[in-house]
Specification:
single chain, alpha/beta, Nucleotidyltransferase, domain 5, 3 domains, 5-stranded mixed beta sheet, about 30% strand, globular
């Protein structure tokens, strides 16, 4: 069957919620349904176990669809891959990315599946990793539903790909806020320079500013007087920073360029799938 004539299901998995948008088949797919359901974490189990169980319930009637999944930054580990002109083959690139992951995260990286963004030997790239067992379980659920898993993408890189044309071509700070987590990336001349992926333990505003200041100093030793940060925060739509904080927010989500329909928002979620 042609992909144009298959329904599409876009899913977002986070520790505390699962969001799904179903698009009807056709050349111009139309949204047919949207579900937002909460998850209750279970002590002693991986943080992805509860959303995966909710994913199973939501996809019970998903036979014959194409499924794409975006996963919260809570489930992903990132490293920036510096330029390496000597890399010539995919095998060499994978070995280089695996080495960089081990350097940052240690032996636990051996149980992760890694993926590398668009790679340029002269400007580098970014590597993302998730637990192998998590990916295997997602694949298994789709197979049981006789659905086709098109791809699994990290929230940071998915949002970046959606809006990257709006970023400054010279130097761009990109901040992604979700429930309980802030992820910040710095790009310069199109090349990834730094990524910080941290839990939010206290006040969102204070922690975002703290991470931005810290990353600016770690990158260049100082911070410019007034810098712009491109912000995507669908779960914090009223978020603002003080005028004198040294940072200007450039919101990415607009009426003319909204977020993908399955991304989490501040809209009320239910206790289970409907």
């Amino acid at each position: 069957m042609s992909p144009l004539w298959r329904d599409r299901m876009q899913v977002f998995l986070a520790p505390e919620r699962v969001d799904m948008a179903r698009l009807r088949k056709g050349i111009k797919p139309k949204q047919a349904a949207r579900v937002a359901a909460t998850c209750e974490q279970k002590p002693g189990l991986p943080a992805w176990e509860a959303p995966l169980e909710q994913f199973e319930r939501i996809t019970e009637q998903a036979g014959g669809v194409d499924i794409s999944i975006t996963i919260s930054n809570a489930f992903v580990r990132y490293v920036v891959l510096p330029a390496q002109p000597s890399i010539a083959t995919p095998a060499e690139l994978h070995a280089y990315a695996a080495f960089q992951m081990r350097e940052v995260f240690g032996d636990r990286a051996a149980t992760w599946v890694i993926s590398v963004s668009a790679w340029d030997p002269c400007s580098g790239g970014v590597c993302a990793a998730i637990e192998r067992s998590f990916l295997e379980r997602m694949t298994e659920v789709c197979s049981q539903r006789k659905a086709r898993l098109k791809y699994v993408e990290p929230y940071l890189t998915g949002a970046f790909d959606h809006w990257y044309k709006r970023f400054n071509s010279n130097r761009s700070w990109f901040a992604l806020l979700e429930t309980g987590r802030v992820c910040i990336a710095l790009l310069e001349n199109g090349a990834w320079q730094r990524i910080s992926n941290q839990r939010i333990l206290h006040d969102v505003e204070d922690e975002l500013l703290s991470v931005l200041h810290q990353e600016a100093i770690l990158f260049s030793g100082s911070k410019e007087a007034d810098e712009t940060v491109y912000l995507f925060a669908p779960e914090h739509q009223e978020f603002a920073l003080p005028e004198d904080c040294g940072w200007r927010i450039a919101p990415l989500q607009t009426e003319s360029m909204p977020a993908p329909p399955h991304y989490p928002t501040i809209a009320e979620v239910t206790a289970g799938a409907t």
